[in-house]
Amino acid sequence: MDKDTVLTVKDVVKxxxxxxxxxxxxxxxxxxxVVVIIGPSGTGKSTLLRCINQLTxxxxxxxxxxxxxxxxxxxxxxQIRQDIGFVFQHFALFNHLTxxxxxxxxxxxxxxxxxxxxxxKAIAELERVGLKDHMEKFPAELSGGxxxxxxxxxxxxxxxxxxxxxxxxxALDPELTGEVLNVMKDLAKAGMTMVVVxxxxxxxxxxxxxxxxxxxxxxVEEGDPEMILRSAKKERTREFLHKITELYGx
Length: 250
What we know:
There is one protein chain. About 40% of the residues lie in helices and about 25% in strands. It has helices at about 45-50, 75-80, 100-110, 115-130, 145-155, 175-190, 200-205, 225-230, 235-250, and strands spanning about 5-15, 20-30, 35-40, 60-65, 70, 85, 160-165, 195, 210-215, 220-225. The strands form two sheets. It has a six-stranded mixed sheet with strand order 6-7-8-3-9-10, with helices on both faces. The chain is globular, with a radius of gyration of 18 Å. The model has no long low-confidence stretch (mean pLDDT about 95).
């Protein structure tokens, strides 16, 4: 494997019964690269992210994180997941824990850090996403945007090699979307390797290195976001971009 390649997805197929959701997906992500995946609902984008970290194991195909094969049955998947940050659409926080507890729990339970070191690390990550003043609040006391930023801080605290974002702003009111996107932009500018499923065209244009358009379980087109947004080669890509630009702006 190329030492600059963080993620390799090769010929991934995922079927649910007779429904083939992913049909031979292949792509690579280089260190520091931000890849934005777009496409219609139900086309397999979220399933692809879940196949990458084995929350949903693929039926066929292989996935590597660096030179470690995630899909190898002998791989310690719990260990490798520590190196893959995952930010969910619906936050997935522990409602009975404070923001601080949500971020630090994985550090002392999974990474076996001392409680003192875990707390210091958690506070630093919450400060990084602008939530140091809210760290003692429970999820129900936070806005959706703040809850999503706690989710980002929790993923970052594990010091992952790559961050996967599954439509991180789609469950948010429009006025809360910006605060999450600003955190993600800061991460991108700091060199974090990221794969982002999103319809936020402005985000893709400002920090994305590559855009992938998926439909019906296939990659239809990929390339530089600005080039695709200005002059996509495929008619279907142009149709989709026109629709989402009308809906979401960009």
